[in-house]
Amino acid sequence: MPKKQFKILIVEDEPFLLELYDAKLTQEGFDAVKAGDGQAGLSLARLEMPDLILLDILMPKVDGYEMLKKLKADGKTKKIPVVIFSNLSQREEIEKGLKLGAKDFIIKSSVTPSELVNKIKKYFK
């Protein structure tokens, strides 16, 4: 029986990082879907129903916190696990994200793309 291919929505406004993580996740066997801002991320989350959302905080149009609030308030998307992936590292920022319903808060500068993939794989075990 073939292994399920998990779908991950990457919401990141930095094009280089968006492509980097898309390539790494795809290479590792995930089905990656990309959004360049929170507004597009919300639309794609509802359309694609990913297995996990990797969410940046500082973005144009709709920031990550606002997107997280909207996802958790929507009956269709509230059960999708969200992992915040940001360079914000202050304790208050991390606590805010977790209080809003994020499953985890990963600081971008503290992980390599491979380490990020390994963390993501643990969510599907």
TrEMBL record:
The lineage of its organism: Bacteria, Candidatus Buchananiibacteriota. GO terms for biological process: phosphorelay signal transduction system. The keyword Phosphoprotein applies. Residues 7-123 form the Response regulatory domain. The keyword Phosphoprotein applies. SUPFAM superfamilies: CheY-like. Gene3D superfamilies: 3.40.50.2300. Pfam families: Response_reg (PF00072). It comes from the Bacteria. Keywords: Phosphoprotein. The modification 4-aspartylphosphate is found at residue 56. This is Response regulatory domain-containing protein. SMART domains: REC. It comes from Candidatus Buchananbacteria bacterium RIFCSPHIGHO2_01_FULL_46_12.
